[in-house]
Amino acid sequence: MFEKIIENVTRCIELTEEEKQSFTDLLDCKAIPAKTILLREGEICQFEGYIHKGCIRTYYIDENGFEVTLYFAVEDWWVSDIASFHEQKPSRLYIEALEDSEIYMLTPQTKDILLESIPKFERVFRMLVQRNLTTLQNRLVNTISKPATERYLDFIKVYPSIPQRVPQYYIASYLGVSKEFVSTIRKRLSNK
């Protein structure tokens, strides 16, 4: 049941069998139905979650009332509002399950217990934050500097399974283009 998350963690650190057991004992395994909102703007994020199965979308609502997708998270990714979780302040984000999902969650309390009992987990979470920051930084630079077609191609490299799993308007929201533009790009690329 926990093989994938253990594999994810042991890319960063080595764990004894006892440490693996201590870690998995702290995880809260949740089955999340599709279309469930895990976090709403104004709420305080109470989880960092590893996605065992499913697809999650993180977004915000802009001043015009439009949803702007910040990122997707699929199997073997982690999801949270890092700022809200660590600072215990209200979130500006929404986190939604787009598919039936299984997520292994840590709360602020269980994460503190984990880091106190197995300090080398600090490295795991530091690496996750670095990966997240790198992804967001690359996205920001691409949004500013690349035309929409190149942004779509970069999106496909990062999220190869997403076009088959989510509606085009979510992808358009992520790219900052219309869903018609995404449809045109996809048709043009499939004809090549």
Automatic annotation (TrEMBL):
User: What residues form the membrane-spanning segments?
Assistant: none
Show where the Cyclic nucleotide-binding domain sits.
Answer: 31-109
Any Pfam family the entry gives: cNMP_binding
Query: Which InterPro entries did the record assign?
Result: cNMP-bd_dom, cNMP-bd_dom_sf, RmlC-like_jellyroll
CDD domains, sorted: CAP_ED (cd00038)
| Protein name according to UniProt | CRP-like cAMP-binding protein
- Please report the organism this UniProt entry assigns to the protein: Elizabethkingia miricola (Chryseobacterium miricola)
